Every structure is written in C-alpha cells, then in structure tokens.
Amino acid sequence: MTITKAPSTDQLIDVIGNSSVAIAVTDEAGGVILHNKALSLLMGGEASHLSERIKVAGVTDGLKDLLATLKKEGRLENVAVAYRSTDGQERSARVNAVRVESGGQVRVHWVSRPELGERLPVSNTAAENTAASDAAAWIRSVDDAEHPALAPPRTRPRSCGSSTRWRRSPST
Fold first, then answer.
1. How many alpha carbons fall within 13 Å on the CB side of residue 158?
2. 79 close to 95: Cβ distance less than 8 angstroms
3. Fewest Cβ atoms closer than 10 Å to its Cβ: which of 49, 101, 140, 170?
4. pTM score of the predicted model
5. How are beta strands 105-114 and 163-165 bridged, if at all?
6. pLDDT tens, position by position, 117-149
7. What proportions of the chain, in percent to the nearest 5, are helix, strand and coil?
8. Contact predicate 33/107, CB 8 Å
9. CA torsion, points 51, 73, 77, 138, in degrees to nearest 10?
C-alpha cells in the first residue's frame, strides 16, 4: 500500500490527543511544551514541568537521571518509572524517550504506558467480559478524560525561525 497524502495537522493532533499511550514533548530540562490526556491521567493531573513528577528507582526526582541518560545516549527504552501526582499518589509506568536536536534547540519526545494489572485483554469474540480487562479499563479512562490545557490545540503550528511552536487556543 502506498500512502499518497500525509495526514493533516488536525488528524495528527486528534490521534496524539486521544491516544491511550501517554505522549509529551518537553524542552531539554523537562519543561512541558505539550502532553496528551493519557499523560495527565498517569501524572494525576497536568504539569508544566516533569521534575518531581517522575520517580525512578526510588529517587523522588528521577527526571535528572533520565535527562542525563538521554543526553549521553540519545534515547531511553522501557524504563520503569512511577509518575507522581501533586498529592503524592503514584502510578507505575514504562517510558521510552528520544532526544532530538534541531536548529540549536533540543526537544525530548516521551511515550509512556501504564503498567497494568493481571487482567489481560480478551478478544471481542470471547465469551468472557471484555470490559473486565485492565487494558480496556485504561482505554475507557482515557476516552472519558478531558483534554488538558497543555494538549496540542487544533491550530497549525507557526514557524519560529528554525523551530516550530504550537499556538495555544484562546481558551488555554
């Protein structure tokens, strides 16, 4: 199959914003540029910075270690973390990240997924209750969640020299 037309900006924003996989873009220090609603659920709310929101190997601010590894190696794969909400609740997850340099700017692209319980998904044709799986419960939670203020708005990015920045919608 050959794709002759790239997806539109609105289509990409819809896919990212509604994905059950948690997605964020940060600057090189962990300042959040945008994230989707799945990440809001993992973090127990929105955050403008990932510091003190990611715990790695028991370290309260695991972001420093993750960013140091990213600077050295350029990517992280399947790292066990705990996302911390502002009230101290934690949710276990796995994170992948890649550090991207372009035009003198550094961006980090984060993709996370929750560590789910033991209730595995079942096929749609199974006699078992498909709503009982942890994966189905997570997807329903994301579907029901509101879009965060830091979600990408449905406006085209504007060029800022050699970088691209997302415009905020008037409501945010």
1. 6
2. yes
3. 170
4. 0.71
5. unpaired
6. 665 554 455 555 555 667 777 677 777 767 666
7. 25, 30, 45
8. yes
9. 30
How many residues would you count in the chain?
A: 172
Residue located via tokens 């993709």: 111
d(CA 61, CA 56): 8
Query: What are the φ/ψ torsions at residue 129 (nearest 5 degrees)?
Result: -80, 110
Tokens of 144: 């029901």
Q: What single-letter DSSP state applies at residue 29?
A: T
Instruction: Give the Cα separation of 171 and 149 in Å (integer).
Output: 8
The single residue listed with the structure tokens 């415009």 is: 167
Query: What is the Cα–Cα distance from 57 to 132, expressed in whole angstroms?
Result: 31
Q: Does residue 31 contact residue 51 with C-beta atoms inside 8 Å?
A: no
Written as six digits, the tokens of 129 are 């209750």
